[in-house]
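2024-03-11 09:14:02 INFO receiving multi-entity request
2024-03-11 09:14:02 INFO entity count = two
2024-03-11 09:14:03 INFO echoing inputs for audit
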Amino acid sequence: MGGLQKKKYERGSATNYITRNRARKKLMLSLPDFRRLCILKGIYPHEPKHKKKVNKGSTAPRTFYLLKDIRFLLHEPIVSKFREYKIFVRKLRRAYGKTEWSAVERLKENKPAYKLDHIVKERYPTFIDALRDIDDALCMGFLFSTFARTGKCHVQTIQLCRRLTVEWMNYVIASRALRKVFLSIKGIYYQAEVMGQLITWLVPYQFSHDHPTDVDYRVMATFTELYTTLLGFVNFRLYQSLNLVYPPKLDSKAESELKEDDEEDYAMNSESYTEKLSALSSSLARVVSSVEEEDAKLDEFPDEGEDMEKMEAREKEQKQLETQKKIFEGLKFFINREVPRESLAFVIRCFGGQVSWDKSVCIGSTYDVTDETITHQIVDRPNVDKQYMNRYYIQPQWVYDCVNAKIRLPVEDYFLGVNLPPHLSPFVEEKEGDYVPPEKLKIMALQRGEKLAQQDEEEEEEEEEEEDENEEEEDDEEEAEEKNLKKMEEQRSQGKSLQVKVTPGKVKVENPARLEQEEKAEEKRLAIMMMKKKEKYLYDKIMFGKKRKVREVNKLAAKRKAHDDAEKAKKKKARK
Amino acid sequence: MAARRRLKRVAASQSGFLSFKSPSDPTSSVGSRRKRVNKNKKKNWNKYSDVNDVDEFLEDVRHQERTTGGLLSEKADDSLFFLDLGQPEKPQPLETHPPHHNHILAYQQPNAKKLRRIAEKAERLAAKGVVPRKQKRLLNRRPIDRTVKKAVAEANNNPDRDYYDIWGQELSADPWYLQQTGKKLVKRPEKLNEKPSVLPAVEVIAPGGSYNPDFFSHQALLQEAHQVEVQKKKQEDKLERQLAINKEDKATEETNLREQVEGLVEEENDDEELAPSKEDDEAALAAIAVTQKKSEKQIKKEKAEKLKEQQRLTSRRQTERQQQLFQLRSIKASIRQQEEKTKSKQMQRRIKQEAQKAQPRRLGKLKFQAPDLDVQLSDELAGSLRQLKPEGSILKDRFKSFQKRNLIEPRERAKFKRKLKVKYVEKRAFREIT
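2024-03-11 09:21:47 INFO inference complete, emitting structure
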């Protein structure tokens, strides 16, 4: 014995971690500054596996950071900027106290400021890394741009967020990247595909705001600081990739169209350009102006490992994507005053449509209500006084449902005053055997090209037809519906997915496949017969469990049908 | 000392000074009898003789001589006074003209010709393109940059700030130069690039959260919210049950009285209680028996028994080992069972670990409180987008999301703690002393 004795807590995990207060003292920063630094640099607290060891025997809940992370923080140049800022505040307070106004002016002019560019470059070394983290940035940007400019948080931050989010929306419109939209009670969820990455973000509704008190605004503001920097750089790179001018400028052709006499009514001269951009109604200028080219046909490069089927599938997907991007091409929309303008304008323009609104709502409206070539007018009131002949009056849900269904849905379900079909979430992936609501089934059928004859008559109330005709048609459609439902239930109970369809043209091709299937089924049956009692017992249990799911789905479908019938009966009674 | 006293006396005797003895002093005010002084002595010439008038006169004479050079009384009249007769008349001009209005002579410039020549030359030079030196300097001067204040322009959240291609430009400067001048940025450790949680940044709400939801998905969401409430109620009920007491155990007046009177009232039960207690004492005494020494026989016997026991055990073990050969199958079966158990346990542990990764870690004093589900009741559902009343706050949602993904520790609003001052009261002993 004697000599160097090992003491407890001197090596191992106890020395790898450091508590928050110790770390703060090591960096010589105040607690809010330390928090800000950690958020900006991306240093997060860790929960050690063996808390007792790290905490030197006690299990009190403490915040731990890795010692190596804190040592890395010591080299950060903006730490000195924080300290300078602290001294600046002290000097400013002294000058105010002594009422030395010249000193105050001088100090304010030389206020220490820091830039976060090098941090962004360090945390996201490649562009794809930055794209992966852009979800958060977009959410914060959209959230802050809806704040009121009262001065609680810097008005400059709010303006910057607004500018960046408008730029992002313009990019998505120009690249036709939007794929899914979901209107929820919290806000609007969008999903876009940019450079192969799926980016989801949430936009709050414009008309709600009570600021909760238990949120730390300083923390959120720090996050926003970092994210605005990141978003700006990402925007620049994205615009560059599309050959657009950054900072974005309106296309000169479109700008001349937008020239109005009473521009001063909307905004100050300095702000009117940004307001026009945020109106999202016109296209952006390109660096190298390109003439409209026809869609070039993609060359076929067969890969070595791929067969014809895969290539064909890929081509089919591409074509589908192309058609999906143009569902509103050629249509002219007009948005009424009571409808949320920005969201609808964004979605419509993303898919190739033209959109305009009333002059008194916002700057940048291209045509008026009285324009004869408008094809759809989006209204949310129960009725409109003046109705034009050659345009559809629809509720805003039609636009969103079309985007999610990837085709143009029939307009009749969304007329004014009609009971809207439910707005389904596009983010739900239904597996085999799960309950699929009948509306979704209808949409899938439409996508496949089948036209169920009942769509036109299903849930309308304003009809010029007589009640007798109505009743007859209703009986017919009930029967057809029942048949449909039965067919679908049969398919489900057999365990086949609904996506598989057997078209008459391809019967011959599938013959060998069917034979194979039959063989396999026979083999399966033989194997089942040869199982031992114990194994058979297990197998029965498993099958029971599987079939239980199917039975539940059937039950739900029956319930839904009963509900619908009850609704119809109620409606009939009400009408009578 | 003598000089000082003399000075004091002189000062006191002069009319402007107050006497040193205060007037409130009773001894001085009452008709101070004049002391008889001998003025013939040299000592008393300065003290008691009043020479103010002579002094004044002499001062006046000296002053006059200084300022006007001699006594004013000896000066002549002419040197002191003069007779004011007014201004003498000026000679009048021969002709008198009325004042001119727009006289042509008013436009005359003495060096008009010279100025004209200079202007023409300048014009000719300007036509050729040569600019005089003064103008050149003025033009070269840079205009005043009346731009935004430096601090505002440099700030990170300036709304008009520029962005550039941060990923495009590679290696702006030589790495050796950067290292030597201390401008090279330290490399970021690889571990920091890992995300602290596997959860996605934006979690989309369940389909029942749509503004116009499908019936079943809405019911499912309501069911979830209901479950949460049921759990909360269960916890509360559990607490109440643990704290509940029997009604019979509650104190009544009777039991209260009995408790207070215990031991005070004498009863017959005392004798009976005494007897059983005695017996217990005797039994206790018997248990504390003294152990006797063991005899040799007993020791030998014990040893032999031990030995036998050991032999028995060894032979048993041997036979067991031999028999194990025949038990191979069952041994295999038991081994297989154990392996399966360990495997299943490993699987469970792995599943638990994966589930743990998705959970928020405990990073500080407060535990993570899951946010309330955003759900609208059936009668709150709006029929159209116009009538929709948004639920929940996205700011709160984002804040909770950061906490869930282990980016920040869960935080609560700082409570207003009232710090009461400690009253210091002296001990009685101290109070007596001081």
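2024-03-11 09:21:48 INFO post-check: Chain B touches chain A through 72 residues (CB under 8 Å).
2024-03-11 09:21:48 INFO post-check: Residues 190-240+306-378+389-414 of chain B form one domain.
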